[in-house]
Amino acid sequence: MVDTLFIGLSVGSVLLLVALGLAITYGAMGVINMAHGEMVMLGAYTTVMTSTWLGLGIWWSLPIAFVVTALVGLLIERLIIRRLYGRLLDTLLATWGVAILIQQMIRLEFGLSFFGIHIQGLGPGLQNMSIPDVLAGTINIFGAEFNKYRVFMILVCALMTGVTWFIMYKTSVGMQVRAIIRNARMAAACGIDVKRVNALTFAFGSGLAGVAGVLMAGFKTVFPDMSTPMVVDGFLVVVVGGIGSLIGSILAAGLLGQVNALVAWGHNDVIARAVVFAVVILTIVLKPNGLFAYKRR
Amino acid sequence: MLSVANIDSYYARSQILHRVTADIPTGEITAVLGRNGVGKTTFLKTIMGLTDRMSGQITLDGKPLGTEPTFRRARAGIAYVPQGREIVPDFTVRENILMGAFAAPPGEREVPPLVGELFPYLRDNMNRHGGLLSGGQQQQLAIARALAAKPSILLLDEPTEGIQPNIVEEIENIIIRLNKELGLTIILVEQNLEFARRAGDNFVMMEKGRIVASGRMSDLTDDLIHRHLAV
Questions:
Q1: Which uninterrupted H or E stretch holds B33?
Q2: How many CB pairs under 8 A join A and B?
Q3: Which CATH superfamily is domain B1-77+152-161+179-231 in?
Q4: What is the ipTM of this complex?
Q5: For the segment A218-256, what is each residue's pLDDT rounded down to a tens digit?
Q6: Which residues in chain A have their CB less than 8 angstroms from residue B102's CB?
Q7: What is the bridge-based pairing of β-strands B63-64 and B53-60?
Q8: Disulfide engineering: B87 pairs with which of A74, A175, A242, B130, CB 3.0-4.6 Å?
Q9: Which GO BP terms, alphabetically (chain B) (predicted)?
Q10: Whole-angstrom Cα distance, residue A38 to residue A32?
């Protein structure tokens, strides 16, 4: 039982990293970013690449993947999303297109596979990332055995959530983001450069997804469409938690992760998935704005 | 001086302002008058760059602002107190005021001492949520937020609308003080003609998205009022 709750917690925490980025970007910009899952995948591939090409372990992959995915996110914002603000469905379709493009780029090794050039680590095949010995095996906490890697996952997610909270509530740029979420026009009239802040927010959210990707690489197989279910789950968390609410995302991720783990433990994964969806539907019916939507006037 | 020339302004495809031209004298209060729906609020929003699209020139002390994004206009010294106040309900009073300070010069991001002097209630309730304040207190907060930007021009959209009568006069006096003592240029959209006459140095009369008359407040004749304001 404790074991199951623990697995639920670790799954929920990765889910949270994915959802945080979505919650902030949707809250601040009204953009449904279907390419967000691909940032998770890119994070995972960055881990594989830093290991094969630079010989660096997972510790280094964390910051490197954050920077790589944040830059890719910035690029997507600059090239596409910036031109589509206020057009919800258009951003959804456009970012979905970007998602497919990114997947194919990895699968076709940036198109080089057509020329018979093979980049080790990319391509349509499955990749495995070995985890360092320190994180292998179990650790004994209060008499119970816990998988070390899952503990590591939870700690990294907690740290990144803490950093996000600090930025959002204790820094000037975070206050600008919160002001934009509440009232973008008034924020602009108060001298806030909404476009610049949005670009930074988008990059940060993408970076968080990249970190989630690094953690995924350590316990799941890495392949080009590994992240498609992740983005769906991420949106479920956002919808249940309430748009733009940090605390809502945290609790919703925990809730869905635990429901999934508990039902999977009692029955099986398929039933667990169905129950998760039932919980989400019930939430939308009872509280259409999510559990923690902030009150508008 | 703030000048607007040949301004057309639009929401989506509908044109609200037609060829609006006006000079707003520095250091004075200019009242924008007219019936409901003639484009007074849109006039202020256009100066702030908050309509969907505009054409024409806006210059502040010779500096062109017409193509600048909203946040640059704010940083150039124009502060906006919108109709309905639009304070953030789950920000504290302090956060709401500091939100305005993003338009202030770097290093001057603070709650101005003047705010405490003008609005003792706000000074004593800095940690209350904005949404818990009464209409009049929210109006004070919206003005405080604008002052935090250290502006040279204040755009006020119906500052006395929908607030309890005992606070109306207090806010009116504060508006006059901001102009007389601090030398702020104020553009005041006002339905209350009596207050507009008392406070305003100049007037601009609007009808159907156009400016139909303007001049010194002493030139505002009963005939003009009858023609453009009587319902």
A1: strand B29-33
A2: 70
A3: P-loop containing nucleotide triphosphate hydrolases (3.40.50.300)
A4: 0.92
A5: 888 888 888 888 888 888 888 888 876 788 888 888 888
A6: 176, 187, 190-192
A7: antiparallel
A8: B130
A9: L-amino acid transport
A10: 14
